[in-house]
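Exercise 7. Given the encoded structure of a 459-residue chain, write a plausible sequence.
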């Protein structure tokens, strides 16, 4: 049965006579319910604002409390524990006055003994929550060690920089932007870039090269003095690296253009000498020979005409030799793949290593690239046949992603590590790097020597 009780014009409540709590619903009036739920609603709203929207920089507060407050509490607990433990051990009563100074000294000694542990814990916690700002020399040393090879391309260098900076200050996002003419272009970014990042200009020798954008650890948080000092040092190092990369690119571009120009001019001069001057000299020699035959034998004029004809024939032969020397004739005549195949065929002898040749070149290559690749492979095979004492050798020339890839591997005695560059190795490296390529010579995984070179087909 349900009974309705009239209380006031605006309120009524229901009571269930059969319910286990007959007066429970008496307190479910709207004003009572609102008053009871209001504190819980405020707490929930504050929790959402703090945890989801980071009100009051709660992450910063939590990090500071965890790193410093936790260590302080631990040391305090250590001091108090040792203090009372000593009192209990000495007197059996923790309130004995005459043993308090002894307990204090022992507790202080325990805290001092735990100081190295505290420092290590603090360093680990700072790295976890605040980055590596406590070890700036370590950050710079790691950056230099990562980029010590010198063979990294621009994208690898820029990515390494942004990752190192993000790890150093525990930033969620670091972006590197460089000036490209009138525009500024983001060349690398680690993480998702946020609003209001810290802008660090990249300046070297008075020139603004770009900027580094370091997002705050939490929205609204500002980097402190120690963080700023480390970031400014990293920005200075980045400026120097960016400047050196740009200068190297400009130098490589200039050297490549020079080599291509020289190769084209050598080819043109060779063709002009072979097809133009050499035939003229040969024709002049034939004319002189005809004049000699029309003269009386044994006379001085006949002898002079014979000498002139001989000199003209020799000049024509020398001009043809110079025309062939101006450019690798096999490459010019037959192309890189056929020229290498012909040369390797000449090395088929019992005392020579067995050479396997593979080529995959589906398109024509610039003259400078073909000539450089031909001479590099020839020098590499010369080293194999003279110094490697190998029984097998593999030569591969392929075109991959816009690069001509050269690979020469043998099973000989191998190259020492680190090796000393002789004239041949220096020549090969110079030819490859002059065209903007990468040259690497190292011991093979099993035995022998592995030479690899990558030459961009287009600048």
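Solution.
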């Amino acid at each position: 049965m349900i009974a309705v009780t009239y209380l006031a014009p605006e309120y009524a409540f229901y009571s269930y006579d059969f319910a286990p709590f007959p007066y429970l619903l008496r307190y479910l009036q709207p004003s009572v319910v609102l008053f009871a739920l209001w504190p819980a609603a405020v707490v929930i709203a504050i929790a959402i604002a703090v945890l989801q929207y980071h009100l009051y920089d709660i992450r910063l507060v939590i990090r500071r409390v965890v790193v410093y407050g936790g260590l302080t509490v631990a040391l305090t607990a250590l001091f108090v524990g040792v203090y009372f433990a000593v009192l209990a051990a000495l007197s059996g009563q923790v309130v004995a006055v005459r043993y308090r100074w002894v307990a204090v000294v022992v507790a202080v000694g325990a805290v001092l003994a735990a100081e190295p542990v505290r420092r290590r814990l603090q360093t680990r916690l700072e790295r976890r929550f605040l980055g590596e700002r406590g070890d700036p020399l370590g950050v710079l040393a790691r950056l230099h060690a990562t980029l010590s090879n010198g063979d990294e391309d621009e994208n690898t260098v820029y990515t390494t920089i942004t990752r190192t900076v993000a790890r150093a200050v525990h930033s969620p996002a670091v972006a590197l932007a460089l000036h490209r003419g009138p525009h500024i272009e983001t060349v690398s970014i680690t993480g998702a870039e946020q609003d209001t990042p810290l802008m660090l200009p990249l300046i070297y020798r008075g020139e603004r090269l770009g900027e580094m954008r370091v997002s705050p650890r939490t929205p609204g948080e500002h980097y402190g003095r120690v963080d700023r000092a480390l970031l400014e040092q990293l920005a200075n190092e980045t400026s120097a690296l960016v400047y050196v990369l740009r200068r190297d690119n400009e130098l490589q571009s200039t050297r490549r253009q020079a080599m291509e120009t020289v190769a084209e001019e050598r080819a043109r001069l060779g063709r002009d000498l072979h097809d133009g001057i050499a035939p003229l000299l040969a024709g002049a020699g034939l004319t002189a020979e005809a004049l000699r035959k029309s003269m009386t034998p044994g006379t001085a004029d006949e002898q002079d005409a014979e000498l002139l004809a001989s000199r003209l024939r020799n000049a024509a032969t020398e001009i043809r030799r110079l025309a062939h020397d101006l450019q690798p004739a096999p490459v010019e005549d037959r192309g890189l793949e056929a020229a290498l195949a012909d040369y390797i065929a000449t090395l088929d002898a019992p005392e020579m290593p067995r050479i396997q040749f593979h080529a995959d070149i589906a398109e024509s290559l610039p003259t400078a690239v073909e000539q450089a690749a031909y001479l590099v492979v020839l020098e590499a095979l010369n080293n194999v046949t003279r110094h490697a004492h190998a029984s097998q050798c593999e030569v591969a020339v392929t075109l991959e992603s816009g690069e001509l890839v050269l690979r020469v591997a043998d099973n000989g005695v191998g190259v020492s590590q680190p090796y000393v560059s002789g004239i041949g190795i220096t020549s090969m490296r110079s030819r490859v790097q002059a065209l903007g390529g990468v040259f690497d010579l190292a011991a093979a995984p099993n035995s022998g020597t592995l030479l690899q070179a990558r030459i961009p087909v287009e600048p």
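Remark. The first strand starts at residue 2 and ends at 8. Students should compare their own answers with the one above.
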